[in-house]
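Per reviewer request, we include the raw input and output of the structure prediction for the construct analysed in the revised manuscript.
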Amino acid sequence: MILLMTYALEHLWLTRHEAMKQLIYERIDLIKPANRQALYDDLHQRLGVKVSRVEIGKIDLLKDTAQLRVFYFEDEQGHGSFSEIAADDGDD
């Protein structure tokens, strides 16, 4: 009984789920520590999610790109899942 209550409290009530998406980011000028807020604002504008943290991976200076891992809490978003695919409007 105690184990069941502990599991329920930790996994269903007290723990928030932090989702993660990996992406290639082309504005490497914003990956500097001094530009962290500008990076978060740009990712929020582009992705539509409130970013909780970012991990910077491989940086390609020849292509001016960096691999990012963007973390966000799904329950803080004011919409459906980030992984839902938007309908194609056929403009390409």
